[in-house]
Specification:
Radius of gyration: 55 Å
Strand order of the largest sheet: 2-1-5-4-3
Largest sheet: 5 strands, antiparallel
Structural class: alpha+beta
Low-confidence stretches: none
Shape: rod-shaped
Distance between the termini: 84 Å
Bound molecules: adenosine-5'-diphosphate, magnesium ion
Mean pLDDT: 87
């Protein structure tokens, strides 16, 4: 029941009580006064006509008294009716007055209720601002409204701060390279970031609010760790290797949330880390293997020389030639390994500006010294093309590419070098019409010790380090190298290097 109705009904009740108590009392009092007046009047009249011969008058007096008595009764009735009518009118009047005053005084309360109701019923999201029309600052309702307003201002401010903080944290979590998933005490997913849903291979909308799934070995492991962290209250870690197109290694770290409210798990992709470790292991194994082969050969021939001192001069020449060739091979290998280490630690102080045109021409001369019958054409701009870096290393890179082009072509090799100046890059293209590279091998040829045909490369004195040296050199110069090849038709290597004029050197 509304406050207005309550006031109205209680007023009505009070009035009813008032009439019920007062009406019998008034009615009784009026009756008594009238009766007393009538009695006194009658007694006085009787006293006036009190003589035996006055019987007739006495009768008249009694008639008058009777007439008075009925008049008095009528008056008493009129008074009672009048009182009732008066009470009714008074009731109407006071009701109207109360209604008017109450409406006037409770207006601010109504306005407060009206302002708060939409928020309370959920129609609007924002906290209400109460505006009271009567601007009397001393009025209690006005003070109540302004107190409520300042309260909602503070709550609004706090909500704004909390929302900003939450959005900020969410943006940070979303941009993380690690997957983050939080579950509640019942094991339902409360939060998962973009990386997390990607790593788990489940869309975010399927995860949020659902029980943590166990539909894959990774999910199962995660769920197991979350439970362990929650049960033990300490951080638990594990890792998993996922087979697939590319082998992936994930580190999993689960931590309990405060007051047993669930747990959080962080998924870190450690594939590159493990890959580096694996590559390091492979590199050492490959390098050792490549060194052991010539050593074994040299050792074998040296033992032959030792055991058979009486060898014919032809045999002797053959054996010593083989020993020298394998020594040469070992020397090349060690040189290449040292070059790789050298490039990795290349200091930028060695970077100097140079013109690519003479550098390419110089490389052609060097190649022609080794492969005199190779045909090498150069297509170049008449202008200088400037780059910055270590000239010797870039020369080494281009010589390696030219050497491969000649090596993997049926003689005489046809090699074409093109030098172009793009907007802010220099483009060097080295094409040959050689044996080409099978498509499956093309993506691996820049890896260390990778050869398409080990025996063939070895015969030609290579160990598969050349292109990895080239790539490392180009990348050290902020450039890129790509390959395109057609098996049996030829291969093209394209290098892009940033152009750097001598004035804008680092
Ligand atoms: N121009 C080319 N034409 C055909 N195959 C090539 C060419 N350049 C490189 N390759 C292939 O790429 C592999 C890797 O080259 P590289 O690292 O220089 O090693 P290497 O020359 O010691 O064999 C080679 O074994 C060869 O099979
Ligand atoms: Mg090579």
């Amino acid at each position: 029941m509304s406050f207005r109705k309550k006031v109205f009904l209680s007023q009505l009740a009070l009035f009813a009580v008032f009439i019920l108590v007062l009406f019998p009392f008034i009615s009784h009092t009026v009756d008594r006064i009238m009766q007393k007046a009538l009695q006194e009047g009658t007694e006085k009249l009787i006293h006036l006509v009190e003589s035996p011969d006055n019987k007739e008058k006495m009768i008249e007096v009694l008639k008058v008294q009777e007439f008075f008595a009925s008049s008095v009764q009528n008056i008493a009735d009129d008074v009672e009716i009048g009182f009732l009518v008066f009470c009714f009118l008074a009731l109407l009047f006071f009701t109207a007055l109360t209604w008017f005053l109450f409406n006037r005084f409770s207006q601010p309360i109504q306005e407060i209720i009206q302002a708060v109701r939409p928020y309370q019923s959920g129609e609007v999201e924002s906290l209400p601002h109460i505006t009271v029309r009567q601007k009397n600052e001393k009025d209690d309702f006005n003070r109540l409204a302004s107190t409520l307003n300042s309260l909602s201002d503070r709550v609004r401010e706090q909500i704004k701060n909390i929302t900003e903080e939450r959005n900020e944290k969410e943006a940070i979590l979303e941009s993380l390279g690690e997957g983050v998933i939080a579950v509640d005490a019942g094991g339902h997913v409360r939060y998962v970031n973009f990386t997390g849903s990607k790593m788990l291979g489940t869309p975010k909308r399927h995860l949020m609010g659902a029980l943590f799934p166990t539909t894959s070995p990774l999910l199962e492991k995660c769920q197991h760790l979350l439970k362990a962290a929650q049960d033990t209250g300490v951080v638990v870690t594990d890792s998993i290797a996922l087979e697939g197109l590319h082998r992936r290694y994930l580190d999993l770290i689960a931590a309990p949330k405060a007051k047993g409210s669930g747990a959080i798990i962080v998924l870190q992709d450690k594939s590159s880390h493990y890959k580096v470790l694996e590559m390091g292991k492979d590199f050492v194994a490959n390098a050792s293997h490549e060194l052991r082969t010539p050593i074994t050969i040299i050792k074998g021939f040296a033992e032959t020389l030792q055991d058979m001192p009486e060898l014919s001069p032809e045999m002797l020449a053959d054996i010593t030639e083989k020993i020298v060739r394998n020594c040469q091979r070992m020397d090349n290998l060690v040189k290449n390994l040292l070059t790789l280490a050298d490039i990795e630690n290349l200091p930028e102080t060695r970077f100097k500006p140079f013109d690519l045109v003479p550098l390419v021409e110089n490389c052609r001369h060097m190649l022609r010294a080794v492969y005199p019958d190779a045909e090498v054409s150069i297509e170049k701009s008449t202008q200088e093309i400037w780059a910055a870096g270590d000239v010797d290393l870039l020369e080494l890179a281009i010589i390696n590419l030219l050497d491969n082009a000649a090596k993997y072509s049926n003689p005489p090799a046809h090699i074409h070098i093109k030098l172009e100046a793009l907007v802010d890059e220099a483009k060097i293209t080295i094409s040959d019409k050689g044996i080409g590279i099978p498509p499956a091998d093309a993506e691996h040829i820049f890896e260390r010790f990778y050869t398409v045909n080990k025996a063939h490369s070895r015969r030609l004195g290579g160990a598969g380090l050349g292109l990895s040296i080239v790539k490392t050199i180009i990348e050290k110069h902020d450039g890129t190298i790509t390959v395109s090849s057609i098996l049996g038709s030829g291969t093209t290597f394209t290098i892009l290097l940033p152009v750097q004029r001598p004035t804008s050197l680092r």
